[in-house]
Amino acid sequence: MTPGIGGELLGDAPPTCDLGVVERRFGVVGCRVDGRFLRSVMRTGPWMDGSHGRQQAGALAVLLDHALGETIYTARPAGHWSLTTELACDIIVPPPWNTATLHATSWVPRAEATGGFAQCEVADDFGTLIAVGAAWTQYVPAGDSRVAAELVVPTDGPPPGAVNFAEHLGVRISTDDQRTRVELRDPARWYNGYGVLHGGVWASMAEVAAAEAFARGGDLRTAHVHVSYLRPPVPGAAISMIGQPIHIGRSFGVIQVTGSDDSGRSCVSATVTGRRRTAQ
């Protein structure tokens, strides 16, 4: 199946699928079911800028996680939720992306009683394919959602004064000769409707950690991100990602990233590859 890419701007029209506060803070302004496809739109902006003079590829992660997860969620059995277990993204055209909005089109090639697999394409306003994504999810019986409403800041948009993606996320980045550490200062700001850290934010942090390592090792650019979600962090715990280079070459690199909470529990395992790329 090859869906059409691009699509009309949804603007501020009421969404036909759920948009949480995290999605809105990442510029997602519209989401609708269109036959066998789900289409989402995200506005770009300065909040996407990385620390190396171009947009951060990881800024796509919440859009992808939302589009893929929501697609499978619509096919869930009655009385169940859908939880993402793996999320992957390939950057086809590296940033900067000269477009006002990004359009995600997602669909479900296979759904089973226990979960499903979804794919996604992200295009710019001109229909150029810039990224593709995929996710595996599993269905779990619905229960009482642990939503920490009192911990979620009830406003949209980036923090006041945020001028780049790291400030938008609220992360502190530190490096040594071997590793990159990305610490999330206010995890509760990015809780989803289940009361746990949004999967797209985990993926964003993994890409940030890898991008810093790539920049130190040469001019490699993020090309592929694969995240496995192992377990949720302890509620209210501090969150950090550690990026460890496996290989940094002239044209290709691999970074292993581990996400954990301050109890020492490993919550996320990610592999990020980089390639020498030319922006278009």
Task: Considering the chains and any ligands shown, give keywords for the structure.
280 residues; alpha+beta; Thiol Ester Dehydrase, Chain A; 2 domains; 4 helices; 15% helix; globular; Thioesterase domain-containing protein; hydrolase; Thioestr_dom; fatty acyl-CoA hydrolase activity
Strands, helices and their partners?
Blueprint: H1 21-25, E1 28-34, E2 37-43, H2 61-73, E3 80-91, E4 101-111, E5 115-123, E6 129-141, H3 165-169, E7 171-175, E8 180-184, H4 199-217, E9 221-229, E10 239-248, E11 252-261, E12 266-275
Antiparallel strand pairs: 1-2, 2-4, 3-6, 3-9, 4-5, 5-6, 7-8, 8-10, 9-12, 10-11, 11-12
What does this structure look like?
- Residues 194-267 form the Thioesterase domain.
- The chain folds into two domains: 8-140, Roll (Thiol Ester Dehydrase, Chain A), CATH 3.10.129.10; 170-280, Roll (Thiol Ester Dehydrase, Chain A).
- The chain has four helices and twelve strands.
- A hairpin with a 3-residue loop joins β10 and β11 (252-261).
- The protein is of the alpha+beta class and 280 residues long.
Task: Name the quaternary structure.
Answer: single chain
| Structural domains: how many | 2
Compute the number of strand runs.
Answer: 12
Beta strand %: 35-45%
CATH level 4 superfamily of the largest domain: Hotdog Thioesterase
Structural class: alpha+beta
Calculate the mean pLDDT score and round it: 85
What is the second-level CATH architecture of the largest domain? Roll
C-alpha end-to-end distance: 27 Å
Largest sheet: 12 strands, antiparallel
Shape: globular
Spatially, the strands of the biggest sheet line up as 1-2-4-5-6-3-9-12-11-10-8-7
Pfam families: 4HBT (PF03061)
Family: Belongs to the thioesterase PaaI family.
Protein name: Thioesterase domain-containing protein
InterPro entries: ACOT13, HotDog_dom_sf, PAAI_dom, Thioestr_dom
